[in-house]
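Entry 14. Structure prediction run on the chain below.
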Amino acid sequence: ALHNHILTPDWICFDINNINTEKIHSSKKLKYPIVVKPNFQGSTLGLTIVNKKEDLKNAIKLASKYSNEIIIEKFIKGRELTVGIIGNRALDIVEIIPKNGFYDYKSKYTKGASEYFAPAKLDDKISDLIKKNALNIYSSIGCRHYSRVDFILENDSDPYLLELNTLPGLSSTSLLPISARSKGINFLELLNVIVKISLVDNN
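Output returned:
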């Protein structure tokens, strides 16, 4: 992300067997609130937003159930956005508005727990930048066929990359199908496109 001049939240990563909470507390890169999450997991499992240092230990304990590597990053407040990618094409940006204020596991997989707007209502310049950044990350990491890239838009002007999903969900509430529907691509058509791209790429 840094190589491609893409904003990311300040972060540190450490192994659960080599943790130094005092070093985390004293880090100049991180000020509360912070996000604690496992490095190898999806669907927001094991993720905690920590507002005070007294809660850090329990957040790390929860994250360690899903991964030995833990990421701690600065919490960025803003609009939650995601970009679906099929082949080398960025689909419409989707904005996610969870009704409980936090896009957790329940908000992702419970029908009606979140609202989705596709395409997201964004300034054209910001929209183009987010799509460009998503495609840059997608290609630089070597992704193929399909992916999804998540951002937080701070102050309607600064898109921060959160993560790239190399195997995004394909359930009825998943974001890639929502993005595809915005382009008139139904679920079956989306699956057919992914299969065709995969077959062509492997021949």
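The longest helix spans residues 124-141.
Filed with the rest of this week's runs.
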